[in-house]
């Protein structure tokens, strides 16, 4: 008798399952296919990302090798700055704003090292004017652009560019103030230069290199007739 009840129960469950399958079977299959497709797509995307990362890493390593950096050459120096800069430019063009931005900074440094200060300045100005670059790096690009023009650029224009960077909230304020003082000297404003150097030598938050230079120059311009 127990076997009969078991068979009836199994028949009822089978019948219920068949009805459910007829009602929801197509939907279940669709969901399963979506899950499988999604999983396969994710794996494919992840593998593509990994491949892209490997390619970009190889490009960066090649650029560093061409630059002759210690990291790439086991401590060696020299290299081919122009070829490395070209490689970094290509790398930056294929990379997002983060790594691409750093690559462009490095490229600009290599252009300058290769004697092409105009190209370096152009890159810094492009970075400084790019809304895709974080403000702190835009300010750094401005600072470096002015650094390359401090001896030949128009002092008043360059000082105007540096003005926002001299604020207390700027992480680049000490270097910006030092450059502002140097531009004041070029403009014949020795009093302003001496004042800025004196402030820098007394600024405990300034880097030691900036303070040491400021101390020497503050003494020099304090001794000169204004």
Characterise the protein shown here.
This is Ancillary SecYEG translocon subunit/Cell division coordinator CpoB TPR domain-containing protein. The chain crosses the membrane at residues 24-45. The protein has 226 residues and is mainly α. The protein has a domain at 150-226. It contains ten helices and no strands. The model is unreliable at 1-9, 27-50 and 70-77 (pLDDT under 50).
Give a quick precis of the structure:
InterPro entries: SecYEG/CpoB_TPR. Mean pLDDT is 77; it is low at 1-9, 27-50 and 70-77.
* Secondary-structure content class: mainly alpha
Can you tell me the overall shape?
A: elongated
Please summarize the sheet with the most strands: none
Radius of gyration, whole Å: 32 Å
Mean pLDDT across all amino acids: 77
What is the element string, with H for helices and E for strands? HHHHHHHHHH
InterPro entries: SecYEG/CpoB_TPR
Keywords: Membrane, Transmembrane, Transmembrane helix
Transmembrane segments: 24-45
Protein name: Ancillary SecYEG translocon subunit/Cell division coordinator CpoB TPR domain-containing protein
List keywords for this structure.
disordered N terminus, mainly alpha, 10 helices, 226 residues
SSE inventory with pairings:
Blueprint: H1 2-67, H2 70-73, H3 81-93, H4 97-113, H5 117-128, H6 135-149, H7 155-162, H8 173-186, H9 190-201, H10 208-223
Helix pairs in contact: 1-3, 3-4, 4-5, 5-6, 7-8, 8-9, 9-10
